[in-house]
């Protein structure tokens, strides 16, 4: 409750047989953009216990930037987001590039869910596109990036706090 969207987490992603296939973990780190030592990092394990890669926030003054790293911590993809993560009645796109930052590879999109859902809930819909032949570990790590993007830029604690206040009365 105290840390809001900066809180640490362990997340399990299950298959249809209810078996854990991907495990995401994020330690507690402050979220100041002025302090490069506080950048966010998610470890992606697939299967659980085997590191598939890391999602690492890259320092940037106003535009969201992330690196997708393999298990050896080598950058395999980069994500570049828009300066403004607010788009009334439209999708918000985060482009995915090769490490050279010029070769377009895919996209993570926060999809517009409609006025009612956007205003009154904290639920978000995301889409993700990447080449079919992308390494399976990189795909799993890119999926982890979606959750980090959601926590960092779209988690709205005031809606939850207001809902909790109303639910308890």
Write the layout of secondary structure elements.
Elements: E1 9-14, E2 20-26, E3 41-45, E4 51-57, E5 65-70, E6 75-80, E7 92-97, E8 104-111, H1 115-120, E9 125-129, H2 136-154, H3 157-167
Antiparallel strand pairs: 1-2, 2-3, 3-4, 4-5, 5-6, 6-7, 7-8, 8-9
User: What is the residue-mean pLDDT, rounded to a whole number?
Assistant: 78
Q: Give the overall form.
A: globular
Strand elements, count: 9
- Spatial order of strands in the largest sheet: 1-2-3-4-5-6-7-8-9
The end-to-end span amounts to 19 Å
Query: Count of helical segments?
Result: 3
Rounded radius of gyration (Å): 16 Å
Structural class: alpha+beta
From N to C, what is the helix and strand string? EEEEEEEEHEHH
User: Which stretches are poorly predicted, pLDDT < 50 over at least 5 residues?
Assistant: 1-5, 157-169
As a percent range, the share of strand residues is: 25-35%
How helical, in percent, are the residues? 10-25%
Oligomer designation? single chain
Instruction: Note the main sheet.
Output: 9 strands, antiparallel
Cofactor: Ca(2+)
GO molecular function: phospholipid scramblase activity
Pfam families: Scramblase
Protein name: Phospholipid scramblase
Can you walk through the features of this model?
- The protein is of the alpha+beta class and 169 residues long.
- It is built from 3 helices and 9 strands; from the N terminus they run E-E-E-E-E-E-E-E-H-E-H-H.
- A 9-stranded antiparallel sheet has the order 1-2-3-4-5-6-7-8-9, covered by helices on one side.
- Strand 1 (9-14) and strand 2 form a beta hairpin.
- Belongs to the phospholipid scramblase family.
- GO terms for molecular function: phospholipid scramblase activity.
- Its cofactor is Ca(2+).
- This is Phospholipid scramblase.
């Amino acid at each position: 409750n105290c840390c809001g969207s900066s809180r640490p987490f362990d997340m399990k992603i299950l298959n249809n047989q209810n078996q854990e296939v991907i495990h995401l973990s994020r330690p507690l780190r402050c979220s100041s953009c002025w302090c490069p030592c506080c950048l966010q990092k998610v470890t992606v394990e697939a299967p659980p216990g085997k590191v598939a890669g890391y999602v690492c926030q890259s320092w940037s003054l106003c535009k969201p930037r992330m690196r997708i790293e393999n298990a050896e911590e080598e950058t395999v993809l980069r994500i570049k987001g828009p300066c403004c993560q607010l788009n009334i009645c439209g999708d918000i796109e985060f482009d995915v590039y090769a490490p050279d930052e010029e070769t377009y590879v895919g996209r993570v999109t926060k999809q517009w869910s409609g006025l009612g859902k956007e205003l009154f809930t904290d639920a978000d819909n995301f889409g993700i596109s990447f080449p079919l032949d992308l390494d399976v570990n990189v795909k799993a790590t890119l999926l982890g990036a979606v959750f980090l993007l959601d926590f960092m830029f779209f988690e709205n604690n005031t809606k939850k706090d207001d809902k909790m206040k109303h639910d308890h009365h």
